[in-house]
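It is worth pausing here to work through a concrete case rather than discussing structure prediction in the abstract. The textbook approach is simple: state the sequence, then state the predicted structure, then interpret. We follow exactly that order.
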Amino acid sequence: MDLIISDLTLLVDVLEAAMKYEMTLVITTLYHQLPAFVQDQPLKLFALACCLHLEDITLFAAQRWRHIAPRASNESVGKNKYVGWKQTIAGGSYIQEMDGISAGAYYRLIRFVNIGELTILMPRNHLVLRYMTSICQIHSNFQITT
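Step two, the predicted structure:
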């Protein structure tokens, strides 16, 4: 299927509709396009994947964000200098799309970025995960790890 969407928000909107109407071929095609956005838009990908309960994509995006997230320098923190909220991990990790995720998912993202502790980044929705796993296994060799 030659359905390629280059806008992440539009892709997620179409994916959400495809999931609602159980359009398995469209779901598989769009799902495989999501990782392409991790380099340029890891936070947006994280937030939108959280909304769709795509735990493997949220983890992938969180790992990328952890490598590039802004951090306050030890020098300024050690001298008790004021560090603006946007220069902190929490502030630098907040974008408008975070309004759509739970406070717990946001907290777990910040914790993961800050100390690298791997916890489940979003509440596990076994039905959605099982559904996505079966669809992806039917239509390709892509594997979702749980």
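Step three, interpretation. The helical segments are 8-20, 24-31, 42-51, 55-68, 74-78, 89-92, 103-115, 126-139. The radius of gyration is 17 Å.
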